[in-house]
Structure to design on (674 residues):
C-alpha cells in the first residue's frame, strides 16, 4: 500500500489508521501469522496500532501482547502465565531515556558512575537472558536516544556526570551484548530520533498527558523501523534491485549524449551524486543484494556507459542486464524468472514516474519507491529497509556469485541431450548432516523464506531451531551442495520427530537454486539411513497446500511414499515403509561421509 | 474561520479517525455518542485536530475536551 511506503506522511497514517487497516485486511493477500509481545516503559497502544499496519503491509499478520504501563521488567522476571500462554514469537522491549532512573549525580566519583552504569545494564541484561531462556524467541531492544535536555550544555557529552555521556556509554554496552547474541536485535531509536528531530521526538506534552514516549507523530517511524527488523528476521527481505540507467545510475541519456557526455565521476555536482549512488549500490551488492538492470537502451550504449573508467559499477557487477525496448514490467518479470525468485522480491528504481507507474500497476507486489529528486536516491533506498540486515550469513556475502554460477549452469545444460549426463557433468558434492550452529542462521533464513519447495511451510525462529537441534527426539538434517561452478551453500533442510518406530517429517524444504539436481534424493537417502540406525520402520510425510507450494503437491508420491489420507482442504499424509529394505535413490551427487 | 467552517472540518477529522462516514457532529456530540472514543482514540483525535488546524492545545485543555462543541470553541480561541 503506497501510503505506508517510505517516505510516508506520518500524520496522515495516524489519522487514517482504521481505514488503512480495514483495506489491508481486505486486499486478499496471504500473510504469515506472528505473535508479538510489546513490553513497554511507556504507553504502547499507539505503537501496537502502527506496528500492526506496517507488518500487514510487509506480509505479516500479528497478534499482540502488551505489558501494563512500565511493567516490562516485571513481566519478564516474575512468573507470568499470561505471557507464557501467549507463546510470543518476538518480544519487543520498548524503553526510552525517560525510563532510565539511575543516573549520575554531580558529586559522584568515577567509580560510582561506573557502578551505576553497570547496575542499569545488568537490569537489562538479566531480562534479555531470562527471555532467551524462557521464551527462546528473538528479542528486539532499542538503544537509548539522546536526552532531550543537556544540563551542562555541550560539556554534557564529554563529562562523565553528563546524562548524554551516560546514555552513550550505556548504548555501547548494549551493542556489545548484541554482538555476542544471535537472537538479539537493536531497534536504533538513537538514529531515528535524530533523523526525525530530537525535539519533536521528545515533545514532552505527550509524556505528561498520556505517558507516550516518543511523541505520537514519531510513532509511525518507530513502528516502521520495528516492522523492518521483524520482516527481515522472518525472511521477508527483498532480494534484488532492478535499476534503470539514464538519470538513475548516471545523469543524461547515453543513447543521445554519448558515453563520454553522461554525468558520472567527480567533475560535476551531478557526476558526484551518481558516483555516490553507485558506490552505495556496490556496497549493497557486497552485503548480498542482487543487482540487475532494466533500461530502455541499446545494449551497446548501456555497456558503453557502464564501461566508462569512472563508473563505479561495471557490467560484471550485474547479474542480468536488460537493455532493450520492451515494456519495463516485462523485463522485470523475466529478471525474476531468470533469477528464480518472485517479483515480490524485487525493488524497481527508476527516475521516470511513468515507468514506475506501469511497473506498479502491472506488478503490484514489486516494491517501487517514489524518487522525486536524484539527490534522494540513497536516502530513500536506505530508509525503506528493503534489505534490512538482521543476520549476515556467509551465503549473503556470496549470493551474487551463486546466482552467476546458476546462470552459467543453465548455459551448460543446453549442451547435453541426456539430463543425467548433464547432472554428472556438474560434479556435484553434498554435505548432509544434523543442524550445526555454523549454519543455523542460514537454516533459519531458509525455513522462513522458502515457499515453493516446502511441504509444510512451518516457520521457525533461529532460537526454536537451536532447541530442536538439541532435542534427542528430533532428527535434523541440512544439506549443502557444491558443483564445478561454485558453492551453493545450504540448500535443503529436513527435520522431524520420533514417536516409537514412526518418524514424522515436520519440515522438508529445498531452495529453488537446487531444484532438479536430485538433491531431494540425497536428502532422503541420508534421512532413511539415520532413521534405520535408530530402528525406525515408517516415515510419515505431510503436505499442507499453500498458494505457493503446488510444486510439491505430489512430491511424496514421486519419491515412493504411499498416500494414507487426504482431508477437504487438500492436506495429505504419506507413508514410506523402510523396515525391510530401501534402495538408495541418489546416483549423481557425491555425499561426504559423516 | 467561522464556527460552522470549523465544525465541518472537525467532522472530516472525526470521520477519518473513527473510520465512520456516518458521523454528523453537533455541539453536544461526546464520547457517549461515538463508541470508539476511548482514551487511546482521544490521543489520535487530538493529534489529528492539531495537525489539521495547525494548532497546539495546551495540556490542560487537551485532556478536558469532552464534546465537539468544546473542541470547536478551543480551536476558535487558538485561531483567533
Amino acid at each position: 500500500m503506497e501510503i505506508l511506503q517510505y517516505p510516508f506522511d506520518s500524520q496522515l497514517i495516524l489519522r487514517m489508521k482504521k481505514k488503512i487497516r480495514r483495506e489491508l485486511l481486505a486486499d486478499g493477500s496471504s500473510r504469515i501469522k506472528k505473535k508479538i509481545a510489546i513490553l513497554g516503559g511507556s504507553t504502547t497502544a499507539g505503537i501496537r496500532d502502527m506496528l500492526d499496519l506496517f507488518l500487514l503491509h510487509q506480509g505479516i499478520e500479528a497478534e499482540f501482547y502488551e505489558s501494563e504501563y512500565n511493567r516490562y521488567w516485571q513481566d519478564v522476571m516474575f512468573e507470568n502465565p499470561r505471557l507464557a500462554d501467549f507463546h510470543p514469537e518476538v518480544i519487543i522491549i520498548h524503553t526510552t531515556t525517560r525510563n532510565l532512573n539511575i543516573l549520575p549525580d554531580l558529586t559522584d566519583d568515577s567509580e560510582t558512575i561506573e557502578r551505576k552504569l553497570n547496575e542499569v545494564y545488568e537490569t537489562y541484561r538479566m531480562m534479555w537472558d531470562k527471555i532467551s531462556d524462557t521464551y527462546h524467541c528473538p528479542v528486539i531492544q532499542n538503544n537509548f536516544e539522546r536526552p532531550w535536555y543537556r544540563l551542562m550544555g555541550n560539556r554534557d557529552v564529554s563529562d562523565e556526570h553528563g546524562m548524554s555521556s551516560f546514555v552513550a556509554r550505556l548504548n555501547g554496552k548494549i551493542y556489545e551484548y548484541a554482538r555476542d547474541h544471535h537472537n538479539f536485535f537493536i531497534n536504533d531509536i538513537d538514529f531515528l530520533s535524530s533523523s526525525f528531530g530530537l525535539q519533536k521526538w521528545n515533545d514532552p506534552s505527550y509524556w505528561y498527558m498520556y505517558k507516550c514516549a516518543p511523541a505520537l507523530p514519531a510513532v509511525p517511524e518507530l513502528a516502521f523501523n520495528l516492522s523492518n527488523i521483524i520482516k527481515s528476521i522472518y525472511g521477508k527481505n527483498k532480494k534484488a534491485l532492478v535499476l534503470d540507467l539514464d538519470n538513475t545510475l548516471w545523469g543524461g541519456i547515453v543513447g543521445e549524449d554519448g558515453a563520454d557526455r553522461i554525468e558520472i565521476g567527480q567533475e560535476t555536482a551531478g557526476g558526484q551524486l551518481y558516483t555516490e549512488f553507485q558506490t552505495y549500490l556496490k556496497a549493497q551488492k557486497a552485503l548480498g543484494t542482487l543487482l540487475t538492470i532494466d533500461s530502455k537502451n541499446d545494449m551497446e550504449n548501456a555497456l558503453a556507459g557502464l564501461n566508462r573508467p569512472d563508473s563505479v559499477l561495471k557490467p560484471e557487477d550485474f547479474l542480468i542486464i536488460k537493455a532493450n525496448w520492451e515494456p519495463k514490467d516485462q523485463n522485470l518479470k523475466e529478471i525474476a524468472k531468470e533469477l528464480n525468485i518472485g517479483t515480490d522480491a524485487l525493488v524497481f528504481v527508476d527516475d521516470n514516474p511513468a515507468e514506475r507507474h506501469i511497473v506498479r500497476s502491472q506488478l503490484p507486489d514489486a516494491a517501487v519507491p517514489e524518487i522525486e529528486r536524484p539527490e534522494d536516491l540513497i536516502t530513500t533506498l536506505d530508509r525503506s529497509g528493503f534489505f534490512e540486515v538482521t543476520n549476515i550469513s556467509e551465503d549473503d556475502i556470496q549470493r551474487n556469485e551463486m546466482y552467476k554460477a546458476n546462470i552459467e549452469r543453465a548455459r551448460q545444460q543446453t549442451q547435453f541431450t541426456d539430463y543425467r549426463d548433464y547432472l554428472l557433468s556438474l560434479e556435484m558434492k553434498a554435505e548432509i548432516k544434523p543442524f550445526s550452529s555454523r549454519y543455523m542462521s542460514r537454516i533459519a533464513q531458509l525455513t522462513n523464506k522458502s515457499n515453493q519447495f516446502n511441504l509444510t511451510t512451518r516457520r521457525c525462529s533461529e532460537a526454536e531451531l537451536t532447541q530442536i537441534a538439541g532435542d534427542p527426539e528430533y532428527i535434523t538434517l541440512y544439506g549443502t551442495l557444491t558443483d564445478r561452478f561454485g558453492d551453493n551453500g545450504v540448500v535443503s533442510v529436513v527435520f522431524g520427530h520420533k514417536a516409537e518406530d514412526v518418524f514424522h517429517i515436520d519440515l522438508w524444504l529445498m531452495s529453488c537454486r537446487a531444484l532438479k539436481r536430485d538433491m531431494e534424493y540425497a536428502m532422503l537417502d541420508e534421512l532413511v539411513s539415520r532413521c534405520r540406525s535408530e530402528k525406525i520402520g515408517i516415515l510419515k510425510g505431510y503436505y499442507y497446500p499453500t498458494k505457493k507450494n503446488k510444486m510439491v503437491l505430489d512430491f511424496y508420491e514421486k519419491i515412493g511414499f504411499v498416500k494414507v489420507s487426504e482431508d477437504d482442504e487438500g492436506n495429505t499424509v504419506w507413508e514410506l515403509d523402510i523396515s525391510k529394505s530401501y534402495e538408495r535413490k541418489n546416483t549423481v551427487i557425491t555425499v561426504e561421509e559423516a | 474561520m467561522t464556527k460552522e467552517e470549523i465544525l465541518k472540518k472537525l467532522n472530516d477529522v472525526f470521520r477519518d479517525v473513527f473510520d465512520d462516514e456516518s458521523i454528523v457532529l453537533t455541539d453536544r456530540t461526546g464520547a457517549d455518542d461515538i463508541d470508539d472514543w476511548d482514551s487511546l482514540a482521544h490521543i489520535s483525535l487530538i493529534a489529528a485536530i492539531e495537525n489539521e488546524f495547525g494548532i497546539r492545545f495546551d495540556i490542560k485543555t487537551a485532556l478536558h475536551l469532552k464534546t465537539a462543541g468544546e473542541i470547536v470553541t478551543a480551536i476558535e480561541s487558538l485561531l483567533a
About this structure: Chain B touches chain A through 16 residues (CB under 8 Å). Helices of chain B lie at 3-17, 39-53, 59-64, 68-79. Chain B is about 60% helix and 0% strand. Residues 1 and 80 of chain B are 9 Å apart (CA to CA).
